[in-house]
Design brief:
Length: 373
């Protein structure tokens, strides 16, 4: 467990935050200028805050009251930047061993073979960085960070410089990292899709303060949480693959509700997370008939949130989980939508892209990758 409490003042900006980062991926989520990079710099030791305390399970990295401030090289932090920052004159194997070279002799170490397998980079070991794609470079950078026996990993928008194809390539490996290691990961992002796919815990930042924190489903299902704009709003449903159909669709069981999606490359029984964008959801007061949309879920309106414009966000609690719908205020009035009203969410099957479906949460793991009881 990583525990963080920080206070720092710049000209025109004040940071005052406190939160905990358990094993898994804790995403710092918010607009540019919300304080994400300041927090990361304080954790890494690149910034000495005015006041604060940062501690892990086995060490205090910073305690301004007690005069403790470990220098960056003694904090044992694995850092993954937006670019891989690999040594161009070294092979992948040598870059990985460079990370292991910095691991303290008495620290629990990751096995090189396990890290290579975890990140799927065995076929890259003899290549140099110039022969790698952007996604491959980031996987090697993550492996180097893991092999330095870190207390925690900082990932500062590691997918920001990648195109959609390379992001799709690396996201499954980040999910494995979340599920198969016990190292806390602090991950900076302003992408709602990345948060939905990866986050164990979400810390929403606004103007230097924490405005919401909790599980990914809780936070992303809150219509008040739109740090990157209402157009990016969307909820997360937990489901399992029920079966695959011959017409190219995969059937999911989401809390007893059936969801049909384009075929997923996952076996029956696999746990998945599905991000449902609020822009892709229609609402009706009675169960619609004669539609091409295959997913119709009944629920109860939990909240209606309106802003200054013509739009509104409606939160609908269903057996599958909370669903958000972005509709107009005129539609809210026409349907008489209000908390407690029953309604139906309508979702086109093809509206959910492969990038919006990720691996479901797994049981927490020990430092050597074994499941915890």
């Amino acid at each position: 467990m990583l525990e963080i409490a920080l206070a720092h003042r710049f000209e025109g900006f004040t940071l005052d935050v406190a939160f905990a980062a358990p094993p898994g991926i804790t995403v710092l989520f918010g607009r540019s200028g919300s304080g994400k990079t300041t927090i990361v710099n304080a954790i890494s030791g690149l910034l000495r805050p005015d006041a604060g305390r940062i501690s892990t399970a086995d060490a205090v990295l910073l305690d301004t009251q007690k005069g403790i401030a470990l220098p960056p090289h003694r904090r044992r932090i694995g850092y993954v930047f937006q670019e891989g920052r690999l040594f161009p004159h070294l092979t992948v194997r040598q870059n990985l061993r460079y990370g292991a070279w910095f691991a303290p002799k008495d620290a629990p170490r990751e096995d090189l073979g396990r890290v290579v397998d975890l990140l799927g980079i065995g076929h890259l070991l003899e290549r140099r960085p110039s022969a790698l794609s952007g996604g491959e470079k980031q996987r090697v950078a993550i492996g180097r960070a893991l092999l330095c026996a870190p207390r925690l990993i900082l990932a500062d928008e590691p997918l920001a410089s990648l195109d959609d194809a390379r992001k799709a390539e690396i996201l499954p490996y980040l999910e494995r990292l979340r599920d198969e290691t016990a190292i806390p990961i602090v991950y900076v992002s302003h992408s709602a899709s990345e948060v939905a796919r990866l986050a164990t815990t979400v810390v929403v930042l606004e103007r230097g303060h924490v405005v919401r924190k909790g599980s990914a489903a809780e936070v992303m299902g809150d219509p008040a949480v739109t740090p990157t704009g209402a157009r990016e709003a969307g909820a997360i449903l937990a489901a399992r693959v029920a079966r695959h159909h011959e017409d190219g669709l995969t059937e999911l069981d989401a809390g007893g509700e059936t969801l049909l999606l384009p075929r997923l490359a996952r076996p029956p029984g696999a746990a998945v997370r599905v991000r449902v964008a609020a822009n892709d959801v229609l609402l009706a007061r009675t169960r619609p008939e004669g539609l091409s949309a295959l997913n119709i879920i009944e629920g109860v309106v939990a909240e209606v949130r309106t802003g200054e414009g013509p739009g509104a966000l409606v939160a609908l609690d269903t057996a599958a989980g909370r669903v958000l719908a972005r509709i107009t205020r005129r539609s809210v009035a026409a349907l008489a939508l209000a908390p407690g009203v029953r309604a139906f969410a309508v979702l086109k099957t093809v509206a959910i892209a492969a990038a919006d479906v990720g691996a479901g949460d797994a049981a927490p793991r020990s430092a050597n990758g074994d499941p915890l009881a």
